[in-house]
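Appendix B, Record 12. Input sequence as logged:
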Amino acid sequence: MADSEEKATNEEKPIEPVAENTYTIRPNFMHKFRPAAVKEVIHSVLNEELGEKDYSAEETTEWCKQIGNQITSKLKDTGLDRYKFVVQVVIGEQRGEGVKMGCRCFWDSDTDNYAQDMYINGSLFCVAAVFGIYYY
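Logged structural output:
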């Protein structure tokens, strides 16, 4: 009899919603992805993380992860709650050769955008790009 009472009490508990629906399909003006502000975040992180470093092939993978995580955590603090961020970081050795990067995205041009910045010193270059996609 005790098992049936426990099942009955478990079934009667209402499920509470995680978040209320807002039905917002566009961000308001104050919560829009602004490339200039995001570029400042990228610039500060790149200067903090790479300011004193020389190129090291063994360490660049870890540096890319650290820089990507730092940028993501700082962007979460900016209040762009409904945005999903894709952060891409590329570090290479500076040998005087040219490097070209490109990207293509299929998105809503009214809400989604991107920002990028680069850091160059005598031994390395770093390009970081952040794509902000509004979550409907």
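The first strand starts at residue 83 and ends at 93.
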